[in-house]
């Protein structure tokens, strides 16, 4: 009888051990990161991070580009994917926070349909002006805007983009009227600024850098809370208007219902990837800051961003489709 009981207990222990082992083994097959943009843009560093994760896990980590619909095609695809960690979303505030605030026809709910895994990278923007605009700083820009209501114009990469809402926030804080001119993408918006079709643009430093170096545009202010080490002489908007801050981040999310151990394994793999010297060097070259925060910290960031931009959307009465 003792032998029978011992055999049963050993069998139960073995089964439990196998279950725990199986649960902690992730991944055992390829992982897809769904990207809402075409290749060759903001996915440059996430692609390197994905390759580091591949080396770490010994499994392919592939970038699956599904552009269109202001990011909705990619977001909705991942929201409907099996919650097993093998399909992840590369998400930015434009689609995760702003699109649900400004669009009526959105079928996803970020809080309901996703589990935040980690923010991989973040970056702030700057206010760039065309080369012959006779202003040297924010104070002079505001003075010109007040003297010429709705005569100055700002390009963005689309209605309801972070740049658009950044303009609306600036207008409300500075008490000015500046015309918003949306383009289909950041490249087109930058081309318009360089050509002098618009007066200014809220843009990332990497995108603006070649044109700044060539003298075709000028950066007169940073939208970060602190000055950039790369442009220490360029003041921040918040030095004139405390509290003003506009930037973006690149996060990784999993479908709701994804097991906790899978979320933890994925977040830790990103941390290890970002800690590598080449990822940090590449991030610095592209003016991005590695983050790799926790799922809870990422969830809190999304809530804070939603609260911030919802008040801007209401005040500016922005509503699309």
Overview of this structure, please?
- With 321 residues, the chain is an alpha/beta fold.
- The protein has 2 domains: 163 residues, D-Maltodextrin-Binding Protein, domain 2 (3-Layer(aba) Sandwich), CATH 3.40.190.150; 116 residues, D-Maltodextrin-Binding Protein, domain 2.
- 45% of the residues lie in helices and 19% in strands.
- It contains 12 helices and 10 strands.
- Strands 1, 2, 3, 4, 5, 6, 7, 8, 9 and 10 form a 10-stranded mixed sheet that branches.
- It starts with a helix and ends in a 5-residue tail after the last helix.
Mind sketching the topology for me?
Blueprint: H1 2-24, E1 31-35, H2 44-57, E2 61-65, H3 72-79, E3 87-91, H4 93-102, H5 110-113, E4 114-130, H6 138-147, E5 153-156, H7 162-174, E6 179-182, H8 186-194, E7 200-204, H9 205-213, E8 217-222, E9 247-255, H10 260-274, H11 277-285, E10 289-290, H12 295-316
Parallel strand pairs: 1-2, 1-3, 5-6, 5-7
Antiparallel strand pairs: 3-9, 4-7, 4-8, 4-9, 4-10
């Amino acid at each position: 009888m003792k032998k029978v009981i011992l055999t049963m207990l050993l069998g139960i222990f073995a089964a439990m051990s196998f279950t725990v082992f199986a649960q902690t083994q992730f991944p055992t097959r390829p992982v897809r990161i769904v990207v809402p943009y075409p290749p060759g843009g903001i996915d440059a560093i996430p692609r390197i991070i994905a390759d580091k994760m591949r080396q770490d896990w010994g499994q392919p980590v592939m970038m699956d580009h599904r552009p269109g619909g202001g990011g909705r095609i990619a977001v909705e695809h991942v929201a409907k994917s099996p919650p097993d960690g093998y399909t992840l979303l590369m998400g930015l505030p434009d689609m995760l926070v702003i699109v649900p605030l400004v669009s009526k026809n959105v079928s996803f709910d970020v809080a309901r349909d996703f589990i935040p895994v980690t923010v991989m990278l973040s970056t702030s923007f700057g206010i760039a002006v065309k080369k012959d605009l006779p202003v040297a700083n924010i104070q002079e820009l505001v003075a010109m805007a007040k003297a010429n209501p709705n005569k100055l114009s700002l390009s963005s990469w689309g209605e309801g983009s972070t740049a658009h809402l950044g303009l609306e926030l600036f207008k409300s804080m500075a008490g000015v009227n500046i015309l918003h001119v949306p383009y289909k993408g950041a490249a087109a918006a930058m081309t318009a600024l360089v050509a002098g079709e618009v007066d200014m643009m809220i843009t990332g430093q990497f995108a603006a850098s070649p044109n700044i170096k060539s003298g075709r545009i000028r950066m007169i202010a940073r939208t970060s809370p602190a000055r950039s080490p790369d442009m220490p002489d360029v003041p921040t908007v918040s030095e004139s208007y405390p509290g003003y801050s506009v930037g973006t981040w690149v996060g990784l999310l999993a479908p709701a219902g994804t097991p906790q151990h899978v979320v933890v394994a994925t977040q830790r793999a990103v941390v290890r990837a970002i800690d590598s010297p080449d990822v940090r060097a590449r991030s610095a070259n592209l003016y991005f800051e590695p983050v790799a925060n926790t799922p809870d910290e990422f969830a809190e960031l999304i809530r804070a961003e939603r609260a911030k931009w919802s008040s801007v959307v209401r005040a500016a009465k922005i509503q699309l489709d």
